Amino acid sequence: MGNSPIGADTRTSRPATGLTNMRCVLIVVCLALCLVPAQAAERTFTVKGTVTAPLADGTITVAHEPIPDYMPAMTMPFNVAPEAMAAAARLRAGDQVEFRWRVTKDSSHAWDFKRIGRDETHAPPPAGPPVAARRVREGDTIPSFALTDQEGNALTEAALRGKATLLTFIFTRCPVPEFCPRMSERFQSLQRQLTAGQIHAVVPVQLLSVTIDPEFDTPAVLREYGRRYGADPNTWHFATGSPAEIESLRRSFAVFAEKSAAILDHTLATVLIGPDLRVAAIWRGNRWKEEDVAASLARLDSANGRATASE
Asked: 62 lies in which domain range?
């Protein structure tokens, strides 16, 4: 493919084998999530908690009690099974509920909702302050940034020039399969297809995962995370930075993250950036597929071809 690493020499890092706006949550101060044992192919739990936001876009948000042997108490959205939509739609913020939750490697869904009480003191969290950063849209040039890659090297927007870059936002301790893990699995699949020549592009293509949890996701943590997904440092890069720099970049792409006490809650976006540093496509949430990227790369190639022919 002719791809080369972002930034400085990465020979010290070797690829490893292995391993909608929907919202992803994590109690970032809880080290226990890092110690959760390997999950079986499928697990089912009984969950109790209080609804904090009613059914919307197929999910219901619940402040749940600890789920033994899986995760501590937190507030998070649950995907609702199709057969449970009617029951979930009757629930309102403040309803205390019990339900079943099935988790597999790739997905999760909740069903069998029962209203067991009412928390009259409950109120949804207040809305955060308005976002001041300029929102980048398709056709816009990406903002300048100063990050650090998984090898500790400086990384700026200049490293993206001349290549097609697929950028997404993740954090390494995300526990729910449909959110950050799914984004990383999609990037893993894209890397495999690019290496095998199944996705064709006129310009080199690279992948870039930027953490939204820079206080935990150091370069060393990101490097190990990449190894778990078999990231080739010549194709797939990871980046962190100061909290202010990360906040500015994610807000530019309308990726919102909020900390309430110990909870980190964020939205998802994946961005295709052209070799001229302009945004070619933006996908919100987790529903995009590898073929969507391939089609956008083909359109990008076509545009580059026309530009080259006109020069």
From this structure: 41-118
State the Cα–Cα distance between residues 149 and 5, nearest whole angstrom: 10
Residue carrying structure tokens 């020039």:
161
The pLDDT score that the predictor gives to residue 265 is 57
Distance from the first to the final alpha carbon of the chain: 25
Give backbone dihedrals phi and psi of 215, rounded to 5 degrees, phi first: -70, -25
Tell me, what DSSP letter sits at residue 122?
A: -
- φ, ψ of residue 86 in degrees (nearest 5): -65, -45
Same domain, yes or no: 168 and 303: yes
- pTM of the entire predicted model: 0.62
Instruction: State the amino acid at position 74 in one-letter form.
Output: M
Place of tokens 């950063």: 133
Q: What is the pLDDT of residues 174-187, one digit of tens each?
A: 777 778 888 999 99
Largest CA distance in the chain: 70
